[in-house]
Amino acid sequence: MSLLSEYKIKNLNLKNRIVLPPMCMYSAKNGFANDFHKVHYGSFALGQVGLIILEATGVMANGRITDDDLGIYNDEYIDELKNIVNFSHRFGSKVGIQLAHAGRKSETKDLIHFAPSAIKFNEEYTLPKEMDKDDINRVIKSFGEASKRALKAGFDLIEIHGAHGYLIHEFLSPITNKREDEYGGNLKNRTRLLKEILKEVKKYWPEDKVISLRISASDYVAQGIDINMIIDILLEVKEYIDIVHVSSGGLVPVDIKVYGGYQAEFAEKIKKALNIPTIAVGLLEDYSLANYLIEKEKCDLVAIGRGLLRNPNLVMDFAKNNKIDIDYLKQFERAY
Ligand SMILES: Cc1cc2nc3c(=O)[nH]c(=O)nc-3n(C[C@H](O)[C@H](O)[C@H](O)COP(=O)(O)O)c2cc1C
After folding, report:
1. Every domain of the chain and the residues it spans
2. Which terms are listed as keywords in the entry (predicted)?
């Protein structure tokens, strides 16, 4: 087992264990993908990335982080997304999409923003509306509809965004969820929205296709989510997910001490505690470190964000620098 070895989960066959994690590009118009997205995501397929996960894509208009984010709340978005998927498939990469609702961290203009409780992220953000039961049901349905569209567009994987202080995470954490109904209070109640979303998604997303859940393993504040709490949350929903993408932070403004692999220990703990595959992420662009995590089975896949953004050909560089045999595309052979 190594970073550049194949990986299989359900019907997803990856040529290596490197993942492009979702990264907002703030380049969409009215939610539509365009040439930028085609070239941008296509470059990682040419660069031999095993799994490309498209950026946080709003399941509702007010679920986008900004007005320049991708949307999947309308059938009209499907065709452009399909083009991206088809191009990447031609070059052997698999493609996922992160389905998201930004909750109180949405900066979209002229829209009401949702949250479990009416608490602002900080002074620069709007005061969100405390969601009523209808709002909650609409969000749940929207994730289901979005999965249907993702399937039509041909995605190999969907990732539910349960991290970084966006809507689902806001419900999960006692810091942002002060509700007194069945969606707040104890851990089971705070996990209810996530569970109902996953159940809805599974009505449409085929059993043999992979569902990833991205989580923040720590809020880095007292009384917030920590590794033990997130493990208990994940136990509540384990039966609905196939892989956990382990990030951290984003719920409240705090400084996090970062270093190579700073979140990898969380990924390892979750993998061991739940016996579920994990994706580790966070400053993992050093080949030796990333390969060590795979070799020692601390995680199953490694996501590299900013490292790939700087160099979409990082995978081929890894192969060349470490004398690993891979199939270079004919267009790149003379460069390697
Ligand atoms: C420009 C940019 C946009 C991002 N957008 C998203 C996003 O849409 N969804 C998400 O879950 N994380 C997002 N992230 C976090 C990354 O997916 C990743 O977890 C983070 O950059 C740490 O990995 P790295 O050190 O390899 O870059 C973003 C990060 C960057 C740099």
Report:
1. 7-335
2. Oxidoreductase
Q: Is 69 in the pocket of ligand 1 (CB under 6 A)?
A: no
Q: Which CATH superfamily is domain 7-335 in?
A: Aldolase class I (3.20.20.70)
Minimum-distance ligand 1 atom for the alpha carbon of 285: 26
Over residues 11-69, the pLDDT tens digits come to 999 999 999 999 999 999 999 999 999 999 999 999 999 999 999 999 999 999 999 99
- Give the pLDDT confidence score for residue 97 in this predicted structure: 99
Q: Is the minimum distance from the CB of 21 to ligand 1 under 6 angstroms?
A: yes
The closest-lying atom of ligand 1 relative to the alpha carbon of residue 21 is 17
For ligand 1, atom 4, name the residue with the nearest CA: 23
161 touches ligand 1 (CB under 6 Å):
yes
Extract the residue ranges of the chain whose pLDDT is less than 70. Answer: none
End-to-end Cα separation, the chain, in angstroms:
24
